[in-house]
Amino acid sequence: MHEMGICQGILDASLDAAKAEGATRIKEIRISVGELTEVVEYALQFAFEALTPGTLAEGSVLLVNHIPAKSRCLQCGAEYEHDRFDSTCPSCGNPFSENIAGRELLIDSLEIDTGDEAPEDGE
Ligand SMILES: [Zn+2]
Fold first, then answer.
1. Residue 123's pLDDT band (boundaries 50, 70, 90)?
2. All domains in the chain, ordered by first residue
3. Which of 12, 37, 46, 109 is the most buried (most CB within 10 A)?
4. Ligand 1 center to residue 116 CA distance, Å?
């Protein structure tokens, strides 16, 4: 299950960032995952549950933003979203395209507790 390794990487980076901010706790980790990474969210959440106990991220929420795969047709230049199995151009039927999105695996933001009584920003 490659999600375990991916999750460990996300968690390590999040913990480093949180500690640098003086966090006492991580409340939420938001990530973006491209369709083409083939990461299964269920498996990622399972790994997160397994890896976070005993860390600053214990009890936090992992929010996953899914990014669809997108390609540009090498023949007509059309840009279109597609699934991971078929990237044929919907405009001209050309199977040759250049991938432009869907391989992302990023931490977008962290919500942390610093222990101060900071007022809620009412997000
Ligand atoms: Zn095309």
1. low
2. 2-113 (3.30.2320.50)
3. 37
4. 55
Q: What are 120's two structure tokens?
A: 């809620």
3-state secondary structure of 108: strand
pLDDT tens-digit readout, 87-116: 999 999 999 999 999 999 999 999 999 987
Nearest partner of 62 among 76, 47, 51, 48, judged by Cα: 48
What stretches of 1-123 adopt beta strand conformation (E)?
A: 25-34, 61-67, 69-73, 79-82, 97-101, 105-113
The structure's pTM equals 0.83
Separation CA 67–CA 75 (nearest Å): 24
- Which amino acid makes up residue 20? A
